[in-house]
Design brief:
The strands form five sheets. The protein has an eight-stranded mixed β-sheet, sandwiched between helices. Strands 1-2-3-18 form a four-stranded mixed β-sheet. Strand 11 and strand 12 form a beta hairpin. Helix 2 runs antiparallel to helix 9, helix 5 runs parallel beside helix 6 and helix 10 packs parallel to helix 13. The longest helix has 23 residues. It starts with a helix and ends with a helix. Helices cover 38% and strands 17% of the residues. By secondary structure, it is α/β, with parallel strands linked by helices.
C-alpha cells in the first residue's frame, strides 16, 4: 500500500468516509485521496512527497499562494499575542473597515467563522428585517449546509424544495422556493405568486458549485428589480467570488453593466480569511442594526473575529489591494483557460471554459452551460479520466466536475504551460476513446 492508501484506511476507521468534508473523499472520481503534507506557493506535496500544481487553493482562499511571507509573518505575530480572547480586538475593526472600503453596498459587517454560518445568519437576518418567511434559492447554488438551504428543485418552473439531506425535516424547507438558474420566466412567476411573502432571494452570482456558471446580466438586473418592487432583500453569496474575481467582488463586475447595482446583503468567506476559518455577512446599516445586541435578530459565535484569523485576512487583503494585482491574476487565469481550450480543440475534444479574476471553470461540452440541468449532461466518466490523467502528471484540480478552480498569484507562466501540456496529453487519450 502507498502511504496515501495507508492514511486513508486509517482515517476511515475514525472519520466518516475518511474525510472531514465529502468532496475530499474522491467518491465522484474514484481512487485514493491525496493526503497533503505541506504546501508552498502554487504547489503542495502529498504523503508520497509527490508535488502537484494546486488549482483548488483550499477551495479559493489561497489567492496569494501558500505560505506568502507577509501573511505568514502576520499570523506568527498574532499567534504569539494570543490565539483567542472571547473579547473584542482592534484587529476586528481593522478587518471590517478593510472589507467595507472595497464593497460600497455594505455599511456594516459581522464577522463569523464559516461560510455556512454567514449564509445561515444572512437568511435569519433577512427574515427578521422583513417579517417574512419565504426565501428563493437556485438549483445548483450551494450556500452551506444549513437545513433551510439543503434543498433541490422539483419539476416545473418553481417548486418548493424537498430536502437533499437526511436529517432535514420537510417542514424546515417548506418556505424555501427553488428556481432554475438564469430562468427569467421562472423568476417572474415566483415573484408574481409569492412576492408579498418573500424575505429574500439568495444567489451565487457566479455559481462555483456548478463548476463555473455565470448569472447573466439581464437575470441579475431582473432579480434586483423584482426584489426592490416586492420588498424582498437581495442576498449575494460571495463566499467564493468575494475578493476572488475582483477587488470589489462579483457585485463590482455586475455594477459595470448595471448602473448603481448593489445587493442588500453580501455573504463573504474564503479570501477574507486568507486560509483561516473566517467569514462575514454585511449590508445596509438599517438592515444590519436588526442584529443583536442592537436588534431582535440573534447571532453569536465564540470564535467570531478570531485574532489569528483576522491577522491572516488583513495581511491577505493588504497584498491583493496592491495596484495591478488583479490584472496580472486575470491574465494568468485567462491564459490557462485559453490554453486548455486550444489543446482540446487541437485534439478534437468538446470543451468550453470561462474565468473571472482568479476563478475559472471548464466543461467537456461544446458550449458553456447556463444552469444546473445542463451541467448535469457532462460526461462524468470522461471527466474522471481527465482528472486522473492530470493527477498522474502532477496537476491537482477539483475531484468533482461540479467544482470551480482557482489560480493564485504564485502560479507562474511555466506552471500554466505544464498544465496545458498535461491536459493535451489526456485530451489525446480521450479523443482515441
Amino acid at each position: 500500500m502507498s502511504t496515501n492508501e495507508e492514511l486513508f484506511a486509517r482515517a476511515q476507521r475514525v472519520i466518516p468516509g475518511g474525510v472531514n468534508s465529502p468532496v475530499r473523499a474522491f467518491r465522484a472520481v474514484g481512487g485514493v485521496p491525496r493526503f497533503v503534507q505541506r504546501a508552498q506557493g502554487a504547489y503542495f506535496w502529498d504523503a508520497e512527497d509527490q508535488r502537484y500544481i494546486d488549482y483548488i487553493g483550499s477551495w479559493g482562499p489561497m489567492i496569494l499562494g501558500h505560505g506568502h511571507p507577509a501573511v505568514l509573518a502576520a499570523v506568527q505575530e498574532a499567534a504569539v499575542q494570543g490565539f483567542s480572547f472571547g473579547a473584542p480586538t482592534e484587529r476586528e475593526i481593522e478587518l471590517a473597515e478593510a472589507i467595507l472600503a472595497h464593497l460600497p453596498s455594505m455599511d456594516m459587517v459581522r464577522l463569523v467563522s464559516s461560510g455556512t454560518e454567514a449564509a445561515m445568519s444572512a437568511i435569519r437576518l433577512a427574515r427578521g428585517a422583513t417579517g417574512r418567511k419565504k426565501i428563493i434559492k437556485f438549483e445548483g447554488c450551494y450556500h452551506g449546509h444549513a437545513d433551510a438551504l439543503l434543498v433541490k428543485a422539483g419539476s416545473g418552473l418553481a417548486t418548493f424544495g424537498n430536502p437533499t439531506s437526511a436529517g432535514v425535516p420537510p417542514e424546515v424547507v417548506q418556505d424555501t422556493l427553488v428556481l432554475e438558474y438564469n430562468d427569467l420566466a421562472g423568476l417572474e412567476q415566483a415573484f408574481a405568486e409569492h412576492g408579498a411573502a418573500l424575505a429574500c432571494l439568495m444567489i451565487e452570482p457566479i455559481a462555483g458549485n456548478m463548476n463555473f456558471v455565470r448569472a447573466s446580466v439581464p437575470f441579475i438586473r431582473r432579480c434586483r428589480e423584482l426584489c426592490t418592487q416586492h420588498g424582498a432583500l437581495f442576498v449575494f453569496d460571495e463566499v467564493m467570488t468575494g475578493f476572488r474575481v475582483a477587488l470589489g467582488g462579483a457585485q463590482s463586475v455586475y455594477a459595470r453593466e448595471i448602473p448603481g447595482f448593489a445587493p442588500d446583503i453580501t455573504v463573504l468567506g474564503k479570501v477574507i480569511g486568507g486560509g483561516m476559518p473566517l467569514a462575514a455577512f454585511g449590508g445596509r446599516r438599517a438592515v444590519m442594526e436588526q442584529l443583536a445586541p442592537l436588534g431582535p435578530v440573534y447571532q453569536a459565535g465564540t470564535l467570531s473575529g478570531n485574532p489569528v484569523a483576522t491577522a491572516c485576512g488583513l495581511a491577505t487583503l493588504h497584498e491583493i489591494g496592491k495596484p495591478g494585482f488583479y490584472d496580472a491574476l486575470a491574465r494568468r487565469t485567462q491564459a490557462l483557460v485559453a490554453g486548455l481550450r486550444q489543446a482540446a480543440a487541437d485534439e478534437g475534444v468538446p470543451f468550453s471554459g470561462d474565468s473571472e479574476g482568479g476563478m475559472f471553470g471548464f466543461f467537456l461540452l461544446d458550449a458553456l452551460p447556463q444552469n444546473y440541468r445542463t451541467v448535469m449532461t457532462t460526461d462524468g466518466a470522461r471527466f474522471n479520466t481527465l482528472f486522473h490523467g492530470l493527477l498522474e502528471r502532477g496537476v491537482y484540480i477539483a475531484p468533482a466536475l461540479y467544482e470551480a478552480g482557482f489560480v493564485s498569484a504564485a502560479h507562474s507562466d511555466d506552471d500554466i504551460a505544464q498544465t496545458v501540456d498535461a491536459a493535451r496529453a489526456v485530451f489525446r487519450l480521450l479523443a482515441r476513446g
